[in-house]
């Protein structure tokens, strides 16, 4: 692989290039064929590389031009990297969804336990003596719990988590593809700089770097194509991320409007502030009502702070008003009984 020196800007480049990389000067292909044997051609190839770079090294202006090209390439790559989208929002959304799934799963487990026992007016728990076989009783409870709003919301959150995971995987693939093209462009630039700075390199080193360049097919046309591909991938990542954001926002708006159609303004505000609360819970809370299965936070929003709270390790009793028999019983933060 021979080298050529541009007559206009004195830049050196591979003879196979049709244009000078520095100034764009066009060069017609040389149709003269070498008459040497294959062994002689290989020797002249290495000698020409060393000779051309040795000659160019005596010209200070050319070295400055090479440094400028290197800095421009680096700055261009850094600019592209700065425009890459940040996946932090998707990571945060993933964490929030996983937390909601965990809360709903725990809540459903406690609700399922509550279905197996009854509570009298004093809050004393007694085990139901079921007349059906245990297997049928368990299956009936599972069917009942699966139709509850919390179970449906859990399925929605699991579906949302799958969508977010797919989006993250798709963006990672685009990032990996961009990285491969960056490495390809940097490899070419480093190889060019190596040949420029290592005039005393051994024959094996020169052959290795030449083979490396040939394995990447780093002609000037392909180098420019790599840059175009980097720009294309950056733009594709940005466009795809914006489409994903707009689509998710539209889906979320439609879902919220359909879900809260039956709520008043206060109920809609509660649902917006607490998306993991069910529509039924927001409706009751907005009207100052409660039911068993609600969280302590939900009861406080609906009824306000209690007059007195008596706690044990996992249970608590809320006395709503002074000199009143009305009280609530909680187990692990969930209301399990209401005494009027």
Q: Can you describe what's shown?
A:
The chain has a 4-stranded antiparallel sheet with strand order 5-6-7-8, with helices on one face. It has a two-stranded antiparallel ribbon with strand order 1-2. The protein has a two-stranded antiparallel ribbon with strand order 3-4. Mean pLDDT is about 65; it is low at about 30-70 and about 120-135. The N and C termini lie far apart (about 95 Å). The longest helix is centred in the middle third of the chain and has 49 residues, at about 150-195. The protein is α+β, with helices and mostly antiparallel strands and about 350 residues long. It has 10 helices and 8 strands. α5 (about 150-195) packs across α6, α8 (about 265-275) crosses α9 and α9 packs parallel to α10. The protein folds into 3 domains: about 1-60, no CATH class; about 70-260; about 290-340, Beta-lactamase Inhibitory Protein, Chain:B, domain 1. β6 and β7 form a beta hairpin. The relative contact order is 0.08.
Strand content: 5-15%
Work out the count of structural domains. Answer: 3
Radius of gyration (CA) equals 36 Å
What sequence of helices (H) and strands (E) makes up the elements? Answer: EEHHHEEHHHHHHHEEEE
Q: What structural class results from the helix and strand content?
A: alpha+beta
Q: Helix fraction? A: 55-70%
